Task: structure prediction
Amino acid sequence: MPLRMRVHDREPIGAALRRFKKLLERSGLTKELRKRKHYEKPCEARRRAEMRKKSAIRKAKLPAKPPTFR
Result:
């Protein structure tokens, strides 16, 4: 899937770069690149996924804090 972005005539390069970075982030390309930067063993990936599940369960069990007013 090619990403395309049109740069407007009088648009500053900084603004165009910022838009481009947002486009990459939304497409999920940067996440995929970070994931593939280093090889991860399948057992490590499974362990990380299991820890993520346990963490989510633990967070769901915690009671929600009531808002504090000063």
Remarks:
- The chain has a mean pLDDT of 90.
